[in-house]
Amino acid sequence: MEACLSVGAIPSGVEGGALSFEMTPVDFVASFILQCADDIRNSSGTTYHLIQPKRLSLSRFAKACEMAGYEPLSTVSVNEWLELVATKAQAGDCKWVGKDTLISICREGDVYDTANVGECYPAVDEAAMSHLVVKLSHEWQHLPGVQNGAKQLGLEDKLVMVCGAGTPAGNEVARRLADEGAQLLLVGLDQKLTQLLGSDLGDDNSFVAPEGSCTELATLQAAIHEAEERFGKRVWGLVNCPLISEKEGSDTVSWHTHFEAGCKFVMNATTAALPSLTHTDEGDNQAQQRGFVINVSEDPSAPKPLLSGISASKAFLDAWTAGMKAQLSPLGVTVVTVSLARQSGELNLLDSQAQARGVADSVHNTLMTQSLLTSS
After folding, report:
1. pLDDT for 200-219, tens place per residue?
2. What pLDDT was estimated at residue 272?
3. Which of 1, 143, 170, 204 is the most buried (most CB within 10 A)?
4. Where are any strands of DSSP class E within the chain?
């Protein structure tokens, strides 16, 4: 996979058959072996070929990569492909792949008796492979990144509201969505930083809600109406990035601060955006928007001293998201939480730049997955 994406081509085939990927899911095989061990009396003396009999051709792999945002992969002869790979490997751009390795991994022709396994393997198609390619390239960084600058999320000409736009995480998310072609309604507690972000993105691509929109529902509803009038479209998506401060403190004032940012702010934003997110044209029975709500949260499972306000607000956010998912999914609106777990016993704080990039990556990957699922 790495070699094909590095050289921008797939090999056409070799003597004795076409080329494809065998896609046996490791978690399925591991689970199957454990079940056999648990039922050793009935599984003894039986041969199981634990392999996915329905392979994915390299041409379908190329289509999956195109769905994931890569330039179309050309088809070349095996010898030409091996020469291209050797050149890239010498430059350090990918690992070397020889003909024997290619044949052993990708040539079809092996026939297995899978009667004892049946049809319980998950299907592997272009959409599933696209999802894997996105994970391997964007999240795990095991594959070359997309080089063509193509829009991947299907957000062109969509209006997305980013709440918490004055935080580092909200700022990074807004810029990433703008790069994908979305027009933005920016809402933030820190009006100065939110205005600066709006200036960077430009009036054609963003609208900054007036001060007080975070805490006053009526003000936010008016801002949504004004933004929709300006851009000529309804709000299609909502990303809530509530601020988490580095130090909560022992006083009760900080509890109210985190409740305002993590609970009331999110409730107001969702309430104000709901009419647009669930809007249907007259005569339609199903929602046409197919939009989304993404709530950025933390892992609330391990409360720590002096972080009770943060932990409580994040627990609320997770419960709120679960309720909204049940309510809005039948209307075609996707509702998810982007949860950032604690590491090494310390809370991952959203006001660091590295954490902000991590939030933006998680939002991007979530939307990428949804885009693939919708298109398939």
Report:
1. 999 999 999 998 888 889 99
2. 93
3. 170
4. 9-11, 20-21, 56-57, 74-76, 159-163, 183-187, 206-208, 235-240, 292-298, 334-340
